[in-house]
Known about the structure:
The protein has two helices and four strands, in the order βββαβα. It is low in regular secondary structure. It has one domain: Alpha-Beta Plaits. The strands form two sheets. A two-stranded antiparallel ribbon has the order 1-4. 21% of the residues are buried. Bound molecules: iron/sulfur cluster (SF4) (2 copies). One iron/sulfur cluster binds next to helix 1.
Amino acid sequence: xxxxxxxxxxxxxxxxxxxxxxxxxxxxxxxxxxxxxxxxxxxxxxxxxxxxxxxxxxxxxxxxxxxxxxxxxxxxxxxxxxxxxxxxxxxx
Length: 92
Ligand code: SF4
Ligand code: SF4
C-alpha cells in the first residue's frame, strides 16, 4: 500500500515536507516515494498529504495507476477541453 510519483512531477518541493513518514525523496528526474515507508497517510491524516498539496494533475497515482488528482480535478478544465498532448502525457 503505497502511492507513486510519476514522470509528470515537476520537482516543485510542495510534497516534500508534508509526509508524516518522511517517505518522499527529491530524486531526479522526478521525485520518489519509498514504498516501504508510505502508509498512504492512514492513521495520520484523512487524505494522502502529498496528493492533497501536489499542484500537478496525474503526478501521484495509486498502485493501480489511478491518479489521486485526475485531469480536471485541480484546474476545473474538463478533459475533453484539453489539448490531446495533455491527455497522452497524463496516461503514459
Ligand atoms: S501518501 Fe502520505 S505517507 Fe505516502 S508518501 Fe504521501 S504523504 Fe507520505
Ligand atoms: S508536489 Fe507533486 S509536482 Fe511537486 S514535487 Fe511533489 S509530486 Fe512532484
